[in-house]
Amino acid sequence: MTRPDPAPPTDGWRRLHPLSPLLRGGLALVAAGAWLVSNQLDSWMSASELQEGPPLTLLGVLAAAGLLVLVLTSWLSWRVSRFRIGASTLEVRTGLVLRQHRQVRYDRIQAVDLRRPLLARLAGLSEVRVQSAGAGSDARLAYLPDADAHEVRRRLMALAGRGDERAPEETASLPDDRSADRGSLTLVRVPGRRLLQATLFRGRTLAVLVGVPTLLWALATGRGGVVAVVGPALLAFGGNTVQELVREWEFRLQRDHDGIHVSHGLTELKASSVPVHRVQAVALRQPVLWRAPGWWRIEVNVAGVGEGSDDGATVLLPVGTVQEALTTLRVLRPDHDVRAALAGMTGAGVAAPEGEGGLPPGSTAYTVAPPRAVWLSPLVRRRHGYAVTPDALLVCGGRVRRFVEVVPHARVQSLRLRQGPLQRRLGLATVEVLTTPGPARPRARHLDAGEATRLLNAQVGRSSRARERVQ
Fold this sequence. Notes:
The chain is of the alpha+beta class. 37% of the residues lie in helices and 26% in strands. The strands form four sheets. An eight-stranded antiparallel sheet has the order 7-6-5-12-11-10-9-8, with helices on both faces.
């Protein structure tokens, strides 16, 4: 008689670190209170008749009372905030006046991240953020000592069954750079100098460099209309550039026995798991100014992470060489997908034979747009194409900004064939591959209409069979 697997042990309730309330907002209240007291004190001291103002002893009493209330409130908030790793759920209780009791089932956990804002890093603390399926069901444990936070994250990942789903032999050829502190294998490390250079070689950075002298000229000559247009644009472009640079600083892609992880950030250090089981599509992109150094950027569509995510959750490689891009892609996809992606990156793919229009196993052939598509894409006609491997559909394109997008067959949600007026006249059509929202939007552009229909029908069958295999 087989014995059932024992249930995970049930832990008792545990409290967060005592400094948690202050780090979550108490320090801001202290700073605001100090600023108000300082301004009021200056006002009283500079009055013409000092005796008419309240005595300094009263000011001290009020300041001490405010500080006491703040400390008491923070202490009570810490006392009522606790969490428990139970047999089937993570439970979190918070709130002093408006109490909340949140439960997150382990089978609904999608990712467990570690975040370390600047003040928390100085205090040696980390926040554990649990992402769960369903709106409003995430949980935050802010804050825990670093060692405890890593242990809580490791245990939650184990209970949720979110280990690495790739076989060890598939990544045995990856570079061996082991981190001594965590025993992890560092796959890719992005140097700060390269990140700075890549930021300068971006279109919006060049727009800022051109816009600053334009703004100064407009201010000097009194051209208010130019200032009204250029000023907000500079703030938007410059702010986004600085935010992205700070967020992606010290970027590392690592692997250990728990899975694949990324860490990045300058002021706020974030460490999160790469949810391989939730990656729906992969996009490799190369701006025109990155072509000389041979740099590529990799972003992914992740189930549960929206397209407008501003925390870098969809970036797997901010800027890297071709070899680093292939290393990153090899962690996610089988090797034949990597070879096909390389053919799309270098433009080495050639038109496949008529009929299936796909990519036979071991081949690197792409089906490209026919010659008459030059009327719609005179510069990139030979760059528009698609290929099919046993596991994924790949789409490539772009002359100024090259891209290769990879969609596993099982992750294709639906397909759509679109044909504009000019396309109908030329006998062309575009096939759109619909997946979860994200940076990758695969489209096989300007194909022969018959070829587009064959691709759509064949891909429907491939996706159905792939979904049956993974169920």
